[in-house]
Design brief:
Blueprint (H helix, E strand, L loop, with lengths): L12 E10 L2 E8 L5 E8 H6 L3 H12 L9 E6 L3 E6 L7 H8 L4 H20 L2 E2 L8 E3 L5 E3 L6 E2 L17 H4 L11 H16 L8 H10 L10 H10 L10 H5 L2 H6 L6
Antiparallel strand pairs: 1-2, 2-3, 3-5, 4-5, 6-9, 7-8
Bound molecules: ligand ASH.
């Protein structure tokens, strides 16, 4: 019977090397015995999820990600649990975490950054068409597949737009848009345009090697709220133009994803479709 037709259990898998650990669990290389299918098995401990009050978030991650099919979105093939743990059967991304490649390289060459941003725009367009906003776009949540293509992973924060987030968030503020850092921002309604802002922050970080508003937490919030950032002179004029069209305070004035895909900086570095 095919993988999808029956309840999976841990015995269906041979567990390989640990690939790494995330905030709430470890990821292992695994092979499904009957088919030899290689995948990544993410193990979450129920006790930790309850402590972290994230069980709802994990349920949402599973629900959302298991219905997504896109080359730049990491597949969730299935899940199962035993008394103590939840197991997510995920697509194996052969080249690991994008942020490790970014830290190793310092910053990416413009052609590579443009290809990654084009793939991110395609993935976000797919998600937004399903009224899903990711809300946590950053290098740490992007993996690299065996052919160098990027895969958005970790949908723990994604929700159906529009939304006003209740769950407290932790980790870096660098990627938050103005509408979420402004006082009262948390209780305003915001929509998928927050991912456009994060795409601009991601593009800046790819090209410069650090986030545009990186500072102390208080200063970061203030600089985001005012859109205060400078683009170094080594960044090409076309790239600077696209960054400026994404890092716009007013969400309604941010460049739509279709226009990101057709921006001269993207077309210059990516084989134009049908070109
Ligand atoms: Cl989900 C998921 C699917 N695939 C992966 C993956 N794949 C992966 C591939 C290759 C290498 N190596 C390539 C040679 O140099 C050493 C690392 C690491 C991870 N990693 C993580 C992960 C998660 C947390 C920390 N660290 C890695 C999660 N993954």
């Amino acid at each position: 019977s095919s993988l999808r037709d029956r309840e999976l259990t841990l015995n269906d898998f041979e567990i390989g090397k640990p690939l790494g650990k995330g905030k709430f669990g470890r990821v292992y290389l695994a092979r499904e015995r009957s088919t030899g299918f290689i995948c990544a098995l993410k193990v979450l401990h129920k006790s930790e999820l309850v402590q972290g009050k994230v069980e709802k978030q994990v349920r949402r991650e599973v629900e959302i990600q298991s219905n997504l099919r896109h080359p730049n979105v990491l597949r969730l093939f299935g899940y199962f649990h035993d008394k103590k743990r939840i197991f997510l059967v995920l697509e194996y991304a052969g080249h690991g975490e994008l942020y490790k490649h970014l830290r190793k390289a310092g910053k990416f060459e413009e052609w590579k950054a443009a290809q990654y941003i084009a793939q991110m725009a395609a993935a976000l367009k797919y998600l937004h068409k399903k009224h899903i906003m990711h809300r946590d776009i950053k290098p740490e949540n992007i993996l690299v597949g065996i052919h160098g293509e990027i895969k958005i992973s970790d949908f723990g924060w994604s929700v159906h737009a529009p939304n006003n987030r209740r769950q407290t968030m932790c980790g870096t503020l660098d990627y938050l848009p103005p509408e979420m850092v402004k006082p009262g921002g948390k209780d305003n309604f915001y929509d998928e345009k927050i991912d456009l802002w994060s795409l601009g922050v991601l593009m800046y970080e790819f090209l410069v090697g650090e986030a545009p508003f990186e500072d102390t937490p208080v200063m970061t919030q203030r600089r985001i709220a005012r859109g205060e950032m400078t683009v170094p002179s080594f960044v090409s004029p076309e790239a600077r133009d696209l960054i400026k069209k994404l890092l716009v305070l007013d969400p309604s004035k941010r460049l739509p994803l279709t226009e990101v895909e057709q921006h001269p900086w993207i077309l210059k570095h990516c084989l134009a479709k049908g070109g």
